[in-house]
Amino acid sequence: MIHPSMIYDKTEEWPKIVKTYVHSNKERGYDIGEELGLKGDSLKQFTYLHYEVELTIKVQRDGSYVVTHVDGFPVSDKKEE
Fold first, then answer.
1. Is 43 part of a structural domain of the chain?
2. Structural domain span for residue 12
3. Distance (Å, whole) CA 47 – CA 17
4. What is the CA radius of gyration of the chain?
5. Is residue 22 one of the residues assigned to a domain?
6. Taking the CB of residue 33, how many other CB atoms lie within 10 A of it?
7. CA dihedral 70, 76, 78, 81 (to 10 degrees)
8. 80 in any annotated domain
9. From CA 81, how far away is CA 71, in angstroms rounded?
10. Which of 24-28, 58-62, 69-73 has the lowest mean pLDDT?
């Protein structure tokens, strides 16, 4: 459930823009870093990979949505080949 304070666009117009956060625990980031072969300071830095990630989401009235930004950076709608 999205808390009302996270709604960025409080107008009556659609689509609405919502900012919310997703996260995982540091241990998972540590485990992935170890699997990649990181050590020392590199591993410590990587531990926070997905500790807290901000998503900006455009929500349509029908409930469909598109993630437009991750941590403030635009998400491309182009598919990699």
1. yes
2. 4-74
3. 30
4. 16
5. yes
6. 19
7. -60
8. no
9. 24
10. 24-28
Structure token digits, residue 48: 């926070």
**Size of the chain, expressed as the number of residues it contains:** 81
Peptide bond into 15 cis (omega under 30): yes
Domain count, the chain: 1
Structure token pair of residue 29: 């980031």
Read off the tokens for 40: 């020392």
Instruction: Give the position of tokens 């531990």.
Output: 47
8-49 residue pLDDT tens? 666 778 998 899 988 888 888 899 999 999 999 999 999 887
Tokens of residue 39, six digits: 């050590």
The structure tokens listed for 24 are: 């995982």
| Helix runs in the chain, H state only | 26-36, 40-46
